[in-house]
Design goal:
This protein is about 25% helix and about 25% strand. The longest helix is centred in the C-terminal third of the chain and has 16 residues. The chain has a 7-stranded mixed beta sheet with strand order 9-8-7-10-11-13-12, with helices on one face. A 4-stranded mixed beta sheet has the order 3-6-5-4. A two-stranded antiparallel sheet has the order 1-2. The chain has about 325 residues and is of the alpha/beta class.
Length: about 325
């Protein structure tokens, strides 16, 4: 499962990690491969589902028969969660009750999707959402989810080895996601997953570390402290300092200036974008920019031609990633 609009990006990530038959669909990507490896190494998905059955379900008798035909023993106990679209069985609560009659009860989520009278049953192998990496125990007023931070980096074309700087880094989510990737560390290495109970044991995957200049700043000493502690829990180090954005200086000749400016009143947003525009015209003139914006009108304040705009959602808020 992925946020809408990121399916193609997630499919490309699956292919990079050598998963087979990665095919984008609405709200996700189908693939063939280990769900345990997928939970550990993928940075973009929200969760990984293991499809176990698909069958016609025009009535509750067919629903129960098709569900009961599956051997549920390996998964332990299950809790059904249904979604119904354009089907005779349209009441999700009733669908969940009938499935619960024929599966062992327990904590693992069994997702039932009814679409045009066909039922697809999938076991949630992830448990908590995959943005919960295990290192961000401290956040700012409006932190990005880690999966969205990974998507922003990918959409901006950032790869390990490219210098990165965030002048309003807050609790450090964008920088830490990049530092983890540059260190060759698996995003999900710090937590466990329900599928470990039924999937074969696998060694923790590791990548190759790529030397990368990553830095940032924030005017809040509390935010910088949180960023440093989050980075320590993630197993990486950050070069971050308490400083006003206007005083930021590039740590390399070229790179990517990335930022999720504070959202608030229009005047406050405008001031943040004025600072970013001044940086991109001044000390960071040789850098590319990737800026999240809650208001399309603010793009002009960056003072650069727009290379691309990507619509995203951040905590229910419509935003755009502006590439300049």
């Amino acid at each position: 499962m992925t946020p809408p609009g990121l399916e193609v990006l997630a499919a490309a990530e699956l292919k990079r990690h050598r998963f087979a038959k990665a095919s984008p669909a609405d709200g996700g990507v189908s693939f063939v491969g280990s769900p345990l490896k997928a939970n550990r190494v993928l940075a973009l998905p929200t969760r990984i589902l293991q499809r176990v059955a698909r069958f016609p379900a025009r009535g509750f008798d067919q629903l129960e028969y098709g569900t009961a035909a599956v051997d549920w023993t390996p998964f332990g106990g299950l809790t059904p969660q249904a979604a119904c679209h354009k089907s005779r069985l349209y009441h999700s609560g009733a669908v969940e009750e009938h499935i619960a009659r024929v599966v062992p009860a327990g904590p693992v989520t069994l997702m039932a999707r009814l679409q045009r009278d066909e039922c697809t049953l999938s076991v949630d192998t992830s448990g908590e959402r995959l943005d919960q990496r295990g290192w961000r125990l401290e956040g700012g007023p409006a932190p990005l989810r880690e999966t969205l931070a990974a998507a922003v980096l990918a959409l901006a074309g950032w790869t390990p080895g490219c210098a990165l700087f965030d002048p309003m880094c807050g609790s450090g989510t964008l920088l830490i996601e990049a530092a983890v990737a540059a260190a060759g560390l698996a995003p999900g290495r710090l937590r466990t997953f329900p599928c470990e109970a039924w999937w074969r044991s696998e060694a923790m995957p590791s990548g190759t570390a790529v030397p990368t200049v990553i830095g940032g700043g924030d005017r809040s000493a509390a935010a910088i402290g949180a960023a440093e502690r989050n980075a320590e829990r993630a197993g990486v180090a950050l070069a971050v300092t308490v400083a006003e954005a206007a005083k930021a200086r590039p740590p390399a000749e070229t790179g990517l200036l990335i930022c999720n400016p504070p959202y608030g009143k229009r005047a406050r947003n405008a001031g943040a974008f004025d600072h970013l525009g001044a940086l991109l015209a001044g000390p960071f003139a040789g850098w590319r920019g990737a800026i999240l914006s809650p208001d399309p009108a603010l793009a002009a304040r960056l003072g650069r031609p727009m290379l691309a705009r990507h619509p995203l959602r951040n905590g229910g808020l419509h935003v755009e990633l502006l590439l300049v």
